[in-house]
């Protein structure tokens, strides 16, 4: 019998939600906002994936999700994270995983990064102020490299570099998991 997958997400401006829904559509799973998810439903799924956004170098809501899973005696099967930095920033992404995941999670929890973008229009006041300050600092940073100059320009306004193609590694992992 096909295993049932629950994709729990935390999303403020919609990128992570969109990726969760794309993963659900592609795999016949269910995408659910973690805020609205009643732990009672978890036991009807074989695979639980958690998705959230990068927030100033941290994976937003990861501690809360860990606590929730622990309280329910469950382990997430995989994790995905969306962020403004492109997928090609492999060194920064590797560092980000090392800074956010425990040694056990790094070794045993499949984790996937999906580039998304920035949406100033949907950000809350605090986030918008933080991002605007960061963008201002980057713009006025002395001796920027070419990459940093490009980055400073891109984060000054909203952009969307998300694409359905970035769910593929996770979908492939999930499909392999389902035949195991
Ligand atoms: C205050 C703030 C800090 C952010 N920090 C990072 C970061 O450290 N790295 C990154 O790649 N993206 C960062 N982002 C971009 C978000 O991770 C990105 O827009 C994400 O996809 C938003 O997800 P959501 O639309 O599901 O809320 C930041 C965004 C905000 C508003």
The separation of the N and C termini measures 12 Å
- The Rg value, from CA coordinates, equals 17 Å
> Which hetero compounds are present in the coordinates?
flavin mononucleotide
Structural class of the helices, strands and pairings? alpha/beta
How does CATH name the architecture of the largest domain? Answer: 3-Layer(aba) Sandwich
Give a short account of the largest sheet.
6 strands, mixed
Number of strands: 8
Estimate nothing, just give the exact number of structural domains.
2
| Beta-strand percentage range | 15-25%
The number of helices is 7
| CATH class membership of the largest domain | Alpha Beta
- What coarse outline follows from CA principal-axis ratios? elongated
CATH superfamily heading of the largest domain: Flavodoxin domain
Unreliable stretches: none
The portion of residues assigned to helices is 40-55%
| Mean pLDDT across all amino acids | 94
CATH-defined topology of the largest domain: Rossmann fold
Pattern of helices and strands: EHEEEHEHHEEHHEH
Describe this protein's structure:
- By secondary structure, the chain is of the alpha/beta class.
- It folds into two domains: 5-119 and 159-179, Rossmann fold, CATH 3.40.50; 121-157.
- The protein is 43% helix and 19% strand.
- It has seven helices and eight strands; from the N terminus they run E-H-E-E-E-H-E-H-H-E-E-H-H-E-H.
- Strands 1, 2, 3, 4, 5 and 6 form a six-stranded mixed β-sheet that branches.
- A hairpin with a 2-residue loop joins strand 3 (47-55) and strand 4 (58-59).
- The mean pLDDT is 94.
- The structure holds flavin mononucleotide.
- Residues 11-17, 53-57, 82-85, 116-118, 123, 127, 130-131 line the site of flavin mononucleotide (FMN).
């Amino acid at each position: 019998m096909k295993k049932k997958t629950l994709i729990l997400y935390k999303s403020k401006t919609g990128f992570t939600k969109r990726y969760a829904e794309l993963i659900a559509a592609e795999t016949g799973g269910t995408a659910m906002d973690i805020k609205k998810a009643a732990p009672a439903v978890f036991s009807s799924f074989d695979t639980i994936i958690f998705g959230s956004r990068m927030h100033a170098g941290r994976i937003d809501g990861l501690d809360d999700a860990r606590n929730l899973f622990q309280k329910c005696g469950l382990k997430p099967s995989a994790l995905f994270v969306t962020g403004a930095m492109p997928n090609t920033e492999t060194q920064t992404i590797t560092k980000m995983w090392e800074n956010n995941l425990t040694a056990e999670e790094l070794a045993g929890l499949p984790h996937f990064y999906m580039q998304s973008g920035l949406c100033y229009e949907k950000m809350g006041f605090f986030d918008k102020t933080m991002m605007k300050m960061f963008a201002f600092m980057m713009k006025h940073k002395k001796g920027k490299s070419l990459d940093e100059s490009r980055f400073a320009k891109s984060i000054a306004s909203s952009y969307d570099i998300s694409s359905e193609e970035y769910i593929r590694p996770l979908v492939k992992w999930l499909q392999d998991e389902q035949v195991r």
